[in-house]
Design goal:
Layout (H helix, E strand, L loop, with lengths): L7 H18 L6 H8 L3 H8 L2 H11 L13 H9 L4 H17 L4 H28 L13 H16 L5 H15 L3
Helix pairs in contact: 1-2, 1-4, 4-7, 5-9, 8-9
């Protein structure tokens, strides 16, 4: 698929429009027609560039990540977690959480979306996160056979899902920081 026809700026505009529409109408109601109208582009161009709605959505979400997690290396796992949290503010975190909650619901009825999200967003993120944890193991912060190592993504995703359900409040820095210190790091023996 030739993606080179769009400038990085134009691609960025398209991705921002997709994310805005996702927040406004949700995945199911998001159409390529709506994206084309919002971005003043043709539906044919969108399909030529991305092939499908699931791929466009997954790539838009991927482009939204401000930094590669593996680039964060403060010298300690706690420092790495803190640096990760500082990449976003509470308002953006709340918007992103709502967006991900909507997508988590949509994947149940859309296997193509699930596949695209796994390939283009989840697996690369998990691989990056595994590298951050592997560095902590190499530094001696975590025992290499600690069973919690494989569960860190589950713990973190659980925090984002549970906070609104249990406390009827959004996830924010204060909560996430307390959660990492009280749950994630102790389970890793840090």
């Amino acid at each position: 698929m030739a993606r080179s026809r769009l400038t990085p700026e134009r691609e960025s505009e398209l991705y921002a429009a997709v994310l805005d529409l996702l927040r406004e109408v949700g995945y199911d109601a998001l159409t390529m027609d709506a994206v084309a109208a919002r971005t003043h582009s043709s539906k044919a161009t969108l399909y030529r560039q991305w092939g499908s709605k699931p791929e466009l959505v997954a790539r838009a979400l991927r482009s939204h990540k401000p930094v590669n997690i593996t680039e964060i290396d403060t010298g300690s796992l706690r420092g790495d977690f803190q640096a990760l949290m500082e990449l976003t503010d509470d308002c953006q975190m709340e918007k992103d959480t709502a967006l991900m909650r909507g997508l988590a619901h949509a994947v149940h009825d859309n296997p193509d979306l699930h596949r695209a999200l796994r390939e283009l967003l989840i697996e690369p993120e998990l691989n990056s996160f595994d590298e951050v944890l592997a560095r902590a193991v190499r530094r001696g912060e975590i025992a290499p056979d600690n069973p919690a190592l494989k569960l860190v993504p589950h713990m973190l995703i659980g925090a984002f899902v549970a906070r609104p359900l249990v406390d009827d409040q959004p996830v924010d820095h204060a909560f996430l920081s307390a959660y990492v210190d009280a749950v994630v790091l102790p389970s890793l023996g840090v």
